[in-house]
Write a structure and sequence with these properties.
The chain is of the alpha/beta class and 373 residues long. Helix 1 crosses helix 7, helix 6 crosses helix 10 and helix 8 crosses helix 10. The chain contains ten helices and 15 strands. It binds NADPH dihydro-nicotinamide-adenine-dinucleotide phosphate and guanosine-5'-diphosphate-rhamnose. Guanosine-5'-diphosphate-rhamnose (GDR) binds next to helix 3 and helix 6. This is GDP-mannose 4,6-dehydratase. GO terms for molecular function: GDP-mannose 4,6-dehydratase activity; NADP+ binding. Its cofactor is NADP(+).
């Protein structure tokens, strides 16, 4: 029987990969997109189906996680077998700037969906996936972090997500809802938002290599993360909802790297070696050698990274490392793509765009401005 899924956050990184996966599996996929003053569906445009086509299996609805009646109406119309709650104000640094909005979307938004399922009497039919996060561990209490590790959130984002984590469990225990938390560690891809650290680096260095930007300004480059590929992680989101019993799972690679490592890998993909010198806010990265033709704008001695304290966070999560043993043992899930392979893919994609922009610039045409991130 054809299954129907509803995805919040379908226009985001994970939403777009998950929609692809579910369409491949024969699902009818409904997604909630926000109204914006300009187009915001770039990540799903390639799977968009004209609504005038008969039996279209992909449908977008205008909506917002802050709007209870809208969510309830969509849920009632769609009658989903599976709900994937991926929508969120997902930027940790921004959550310090907009804590109340973040709480509303990332915390109460989840409650609104859970209540809609209950209110509509869908609790026996609809399975629910909550996008929980390694940010719950924050100031880590145990390494590596697993499903039983105590939480210590360090940002308004993480505190809001903690509320959603417990609400998901509460609806499971109180109403027997099939509801799961995926506690996902950082995952990236060429579709990653431009202001998250990995994409900021791959996009920034590709632009610098092509002479489109002078320098990358970074925050805490000693921060340690367990980075995986979003494609691997959305597979696990689906797998969690196919089990006999709802449970929560850590999804991670079990390997940790620094932001500095990621800068070095990205540089290497562009044929560059770097030297780091100076300390703290005075640290810089200078080009040591250039090989190949990927960085025509650079020569040895160019400074391509500086520290800008504006990118330090009021409370930082210094280190995260996940233990995905439960996912491996119970579901047979293992990541297929390493962090370094993912970095190579991201640089290659960003270099293509940067080369296109460099060509336009050389020929006197307008190049999209890279706003600060
Ligand atoms: P993105 O930031 O790429 O996507 C977030 C999505 O949520 C976008 O579609 C966005 O819409 C939508 N959204 C934002 N605010 C609202 C709102 N008020 N109402 C409805 N939709 C909204 O995130 P990712 O794809 O990377 O992450 C998916 C989920 O997983 C998020 O909940 C995130 O917090 C969580 N997570 C992510 C991890 C990661 O490393 N990527 C790790 C752990 C958890 P728009 O396109 O219009 O902005
Ligand atoms: P994170 O991801 O906060 O872990 O949240 P992000 O890529 O933003 O930061 C990772 C680490 O890099 C450090 N950093 C910088 N970060 C950004 N964005 N910009 C910089 O210039 C910079 N310099 C250093 C950060 O301080 C941090 O330590 C992501 C999001 O996807 C969340 O939604 C998700 O829940 C978690 O991953 C798991």
């Amino acid at each position: 029987m054809t299954k129907t899924a509803l995805i919040t956050g379908i226009t985001g990184q994970d939403g777009s990969y998950l929609a692809e996966l579910l369409l491949e599996k024969g699902y009818v996929v409904h997604g909630i997109k926000r109204r914006a003053s300009s187009f915001n569906t770039q990540r799903v445009d390639h799977i968009y189906v004209d609504p005038h086509v008969d039996n279209a299996r992909f449908k977008l609805h205008y909506g917002d996680l802050t709007d209870t009646s809208n969510l309830t109406r969509i849920m009632s119309e769609v009658q989903p077998d599976e709900v994937y709650n991926l929508g969120a104000q997902s930027h940790v640094a921004v959550s310090f700037e907009a804590p109340e909005y973040t709480a509303d979307v990332d915390g109460i938004g989840t409650l609104r969906l859970l209540e809609a399922i209950r209110f509509l009497g869908l609790d026996k039919k609809t399975r629910f996936y909550q996008a929980s996060t390694s940010e719950l561990y924050g100031l880590v209490q145990e390494t590596p972090q697993r499903e039983t590790t105590p939480f210590y959130p360090r940002s308004p984002y993480a505190v809001a997500k903690l509320y959603s984590y417990w609400m998901t469990i509460n609806y499971r225990e109180a109403y027997g809802l099939f509801a799961c938390n995926g506690i996902l560690f950082n995952h990236e891809s060429p579709r990653r938002g431009e202001t998250f650290v990995t994409r900021k680096i791959t996009r920034g260095l590709a632009h610098i290599a092509q002479g489109l930007e002078p320098c990358l300004y970074m925050g805490n480059i000693d921060s340690l993360r367990d980075w995986g590929h979003a494609k691997d992680y959305v597979r696990m989101q689906w797998m969690m909802l196919q089990q006999d019993q709802p449970e929560d799972y850590v999804i991670a690679t079990g390997k940790q790297h620094s932001v500095r490592d990621f800068i070095n890998w990205s540089a290497a993909e562009l044929g560059l070696t770097l030297e780091f010198s100076g300390e703290g806010v005075d640290e810089v990265a200078t080009v040591a050698t250039v090989t190949g033709d990927m960085a025509p704008a650079l020569k040895a001695g160019d400074v391509i990274m500086r520290i800008d304290p504006r990118y330090f966070r009021p409370a930082e999560v210094e280190t995260l490392l996940g233990d995905p043993s439960k996912a491996k043992q119970q579901l047979g899930w293992e990541p297929q793509i390493t962090a370094q392979e993912m970095c190579a893919e991201m640089v290659a994609e960003d270099l293509k765009t940067a080369r296109r922009h460099a060509f336009l610039k050389e020929n006197g045409m307008d190049v999209p401005v890279a706003f600060e991130s």
